[in-house]
Known about the structure:
By secondary structure, the protein is an alpha/beta fold. The chain has a single domain, classed as TIM Barrel. 46% of the residues lie in helices and 16% in strands. The chain has twelve helices and eight strands. The chain has helices at residues 4-9, 27-31, 50-62, 76-84, 97-107, 131-141, 151-155, 157-162, 173-179, 189-204, 216-225, 235-254; strands spanning 14-19, 38-42, 66-70, 89-90, 143-148, 168-171, 208-213, 229-234. The protein has an eight-stranded parallel β-sheet with strand order 3-2-1-8-7-6-5-4. Strand 1 (14-19), helix 2 and strand 2 (38-42) form a beta-alpha-beta unit. The mean pLDDT is 97.
Amino acid sequence: MTTMREVVSGPGLRLGTYLGEFVTSGIGQILAPTGVEFVFLDMEHSGFSFETVKATLAHLHAAGIASIVRPPSRSYHDISRALDVGAQGVVPPMMTAAEAERVAGFMKYPPAGGRGVALGIAHDGYKPGPPAEKLAQANNDTVFIALIETAAGLADVERIAAMDAVDGLLIGHFDLTCSMGINAQFDHPDFKAAVDRIISAGKANNKKLGRLAATPEEGRDLYEAGFDLIMYSGDVWAYQAAMTAGVAKIRELTGS
């Protein structure tokens, strides 16, 4: 099984996708043949409960697909619970340097942090074993991707990227433009400068750089720009795009 630690530690391009709607029990088997290595499971902008996330993670991991969860908040109970139900990593919303330090403490067991201890549950595969070894292994395995999607996060990006606990940077492009007062203006010079700054901070600290790509061509462009943790599309958008194209083609072929 591919783990999120392996995804962020390995060189080169790593490809995943976004799930915010379709979490059928077959989702892991559906995605496995596509070649995606990881799934970004979104609790912030979906109706997913922790019970739903727990079941979905089990299906994904059984199919060999790594996972990272965006919890609904930066709160301790949301971050620790996401990890306890099986998330291999978290990407909490709207990071600043101060928030990133707090999140790192929430994620790790003592002495690295203050995460509450429960062993032999979903996050460690319900397996027995020496507690001290299991705690150390969990601290090593859990992944923290910092989501840069505010002007405050951008101002702190060099400090965030330099943190040992941070494994990568992900740009929330819509929220970042809104926070900068240039809503959805992705060609704006200020946004382009912000992206360049985030890329530079990530590369200077050997951290993975993540973005969402709506099309294969955008994925290529992002990779050429320096991004190597790319999510291609998402469940709703991929399904809608495929249906739109197919229905339009039938109408074209039949002259309807």
